[in-house]
Every structure is written in structure tokens, then in C-alpha cells.
Protein: DUF4138 domain-containing protein
Amino acid sequence: MRTLFLILISLISAFAKAQTSTVLDTIYANDTKNVALFFPEPIRQGITGSDKFVFTYNREKEQYFGLLQAKPGKESNLLVVNRNGAIFSYIVRYKKQLSKLNYFIPLSNSIGNEKPIEIDSIQVVTSEKNIDNRTYYYQKFCSYLLNRNQRIGRIKKRTQGIVLNVENVVFDKEELYFVIQIENNSTLDYDLNFLNLSIETRQKGKKKSLQSLYQEPIYKQHLPSKIAEGKMVRFVYVMPKFSLSDDRRAILELNEKDGERNIKLNMSHRYINNPN
Structure:
């Protein structure tokens, strides 16, 4: 019994020492850009230690991300509590030039929980660690893009009441994110057979021809199988980063299952080479 007691005392001391020596990560922000923080669970509460820093999040409908802005001044701290009680704490500092605008925060960064962790909670944490971190990143960043109202230009084509529109092309890390919209203004449902992205090259010489190379998406978010009449859907394709020369262009091909309402949308190299 005495041996067990000594072991418990040693474990408690080691845990307390680890907590004391924890160094908080620093997040930089400024007053001209939004820095987005994505959390593993919806945000219930977020507080900054100074009015020089503003952390905004949806207080009416819990969401996974919040936006941080800062004015010049002394550093402060940010405390965020998730819906499941997980607590996150960071040092926040003003920086005129930002090299990072998006932070995807794993559950492992939590400094504790406001309520005791039960056995079921431990099992949930264990299963979350098995989730592919890259897929998790794509999910959160795609959701962020779908919530933004940003457009790269007018890239649109229609046929027989079906409208295909590329709203935005965004570069992040090593990928290009294509925010795509399909609108069905016809009186019939639209069954999607496929939506492919290809790179088309014009072959020079006496016999001019076109060569098309299909690009496989890394990840697709909210791709529908059907667009009901009078409805509109928005989704995201994540592609490996690529650039195009003047004689090449990207082709987005929409194909209807058991139908002929097909669309080929051309995207100039300038949209691909100059993403948001």
C-alpha cells in the first residue's frame, strides 16, 4: 500500500512539473488581415487579455473556426474553450507582415479540460488520433472557403438551364482549391455523371492538335450526385499545385448521367497562375 502511495505521489509531481514548464505557442496577427483558427470542436467561448486583440466567432451557432485581428501594442493571450470543454491557450502578438494566415489546431494542443475526462472521452481522443491529419486539414480549410464570399473572376458557362461556375481558386501549402458552383435553373433534376479537371495543351506544328491530361483530385468536399430542379450546390476540389504556360489551359468538364446537358468550361492560365 505504501509503495502504491509513493508511486501516485511521484506521478502527481511529474505531471505538475510538466504543466509548469509548458511553453505556450505564439500566434501572430495584424489589423489588415484575418487570421483563421480552426479547432477540433466548435468554439463555445473565446477571450483575449487585451482590447488590442479581437477574436470573433459565431456566438449564435457554434462553428469550428474563429478570426483573430490585432493592433500594435504589447503581447497578450488568447483563451478558447471548445464545446466538449477542451481548453486552448496561446500567446498573441502583433506583427506587421504575416507569414501564416491559417492555424489548424489539433486536440493534442489542449492544455486541459474544464470538466473531468471520463473513460468514453479517452476513447474518443484515441480514435481522433487515428484520423488522417491531412484529410482533417482539407475538411476544415474547404469549410472555411465555402463560408467566404470571395471570387477570383467571372468563370462561368451555361447550357439548357445548367450553370457551371468556378467561384474561386485558392493556393494553400502545396495545393490548389477550386470552389465550384452548379446551378440547376431547368425543370428537371440533374444527375451528375462526372466532373473532371484536365489540362489541355495546343500542339504546335503543321498539324495542330489538342492533347488533354486528366488531373486527379486529392480530395473532394460536398460533391453532389444530383442537383434538384431550381437548386444550387457549392463544393470544393483539392488538386496538387500546378501552373500553366501560355499555350495551356485548364478544362472543367461537367457530364450528365443519361443526358446531354454537358458543359466544358475553359479556364485561362492566368487564373491558375494567380490564385487567391
